[in-house]
Write a structure and sequence with these properties.
Number of strands: 14
Distance between the termini: 30 Å
Radius of gyration: 27 Å
Number of helices: 12
Largest sheet: 4 strands, antiparallel
CATH architecture of the largest domain: Beta Complex
Strand order of the largest sheet: 1-2-14-13
Number of domains: 3
Order of helices and strands: EEHEHEEEEEEEHEEEEHHHHHHHHH
Strand content: 25-35%
CATH class of the largest domain: Mainly Beta
CATH topology of the largest domain: RNA Polymerase Alpha Subunit, Chain A, domain 2
Shape: elongated
Structural class: alpha+beta
Length: 337
């Protein structure tokens, strides 16, 4: 018998699939009809516009006065040199938001991204080509690399750099691709629920999952303006989303912990089958398990600490409920077999 809903269904399933080093899919479901695209569209825009990256913003080349100049002994003119430079992706190694890096090359030499890595910056596209200089040439330049988001045109940068520098268009975003698909999914004989599938590809400055987490943080921060109106905190910690992505570890059986026979048998007799059950226990609850001695308690606590989920770990309410549900489902499946 169908019932009238009094609140929207809250999705409970999330999957992360690593396709390659810099490409991943994030899948979430089931959403009620219309809710998937409502969330997916702004998240896509935030992925492309709010993910932090690094880019060269200005350059000073010895003997060069403007971007349409040419340099003796270099195969490329300055305009092409700058185009090639924009294809090289930098990352500042320290905590600074801006660095100036000096480079000097003598020919004959082909210069690639790998030649630009030093103590201050890392290049994540080492194979990218920059320029070729002949045996009579010396190429000396200073590069300004900054941390930022989105796209900043050279006109804006020109206003904040000294006149002896050539301002560059800065493409900060490390996200090369962010697309989503909405698929129908069956839930309790209702075919109108939806699944959203994000495909995210980055340039290597940041992992796709990290970029996705950053976009969630940006969305929560923007929505937090309404906290005062609603008198509630609608901005869950970003860590709660990371908890969801780590659920696969918590859903492993306790056999995966390689505990001693004494510790394992004690947990098994107490009905503890999954790592997540230990993570949800307080130290007192674990200590009160029947026949669990001090050495077993210390062993279990140490192993859980080692895998990053100490006994009594502090999870978000959403993660606790989701974890309990998944464990219950797994135990139900085990009893049916």
């Amino acid at each position: 018998m169908k019932q009238i809903s009094t609140s929207a269904h809250v999705p409970t399933e999330i999957e992360v699939k690593n396709i390659s080093k810099n490409k991943a899919q994030v899948v979430a479901y089931p959403f009620e009809s219309g809710f998937a695209v409502t969330l997916a569209h702004p998240l896509r825009r935030l992925l492309l516009s709010s993910t932090v990256g690094y880019a060269p913003t200005a350059i000073k080349i010895d003997g060069v006065t403007h971007e349409f100049d040419s340099m003796r002994g270099m195969l490329e003119d300055v305009a092409l040199f700058i185009i090639n430079l924009k294809n090289i992706r930098f990352k500042i190694k320290g905590d600074e938001n801006r660095v100036e890096v000096n480079y000097s090359f003598s020919g004959p030499k082909e210069i690639f991204g790998s030649d630009l890595t030093n103590d201050e910056v890392e290049v994540v596209t080492p194979e990218a080509y920059l320029a070729t200089i002949n045996e009579d040439a010396d190429l000396n330049f200073t590069l300004v690399i900054e941390k930022g988001i989105g796209y900043v045109p050279s006109e804006t940068i020109r206003e904040i750099v000294s006149s002896d520098y050539i301002a560059l268009d800065a493409f900060f975003t490390p996200v090369k691709k962010a697309v989503y698909e909405i698929e129908n999914i069956l839930v309790e004989d209702n075919p109108n629920f939806e699944k959203v599938v994000f495909t995210i590809e980055t340039d290597g400055l940041i992992s796709p999952v990290e970029a996705f987490k950053n976009s969630l943080e940006a969305m929560y921060n923007q929505m937090a303006v309404f906290n005062g109106v609603l008198d509630i905190d609608i901005s869950p910690k970003v860590e709660s989303q990371a908890d969801s992505i780590e659920l696969d570890k918590l859903l492993q059986t306790i056999e995966e912990l390689n505990l001693s026979a004494r510790s394992y048998n004690c947990l098994d007799r107490a009905g503890v089958k999954f790592v997540g059950e230990l993570a949800l226990m307080s130290e007192l609850e674990l200590k009160n398990l029947k026949n669990l001695g001090k050495k077993s308690l210390e062993e279990i606590s140490a192993v859980m600490e080692e895998i990053g989920f100490p006994v009594g770990a502090d999870f978000s309410t959403e993660t606790v409920e989701l974890l309990k549900k998944k464990i219950a489902d797994l135990k139900s499946s085990m009893s049916e077999e």
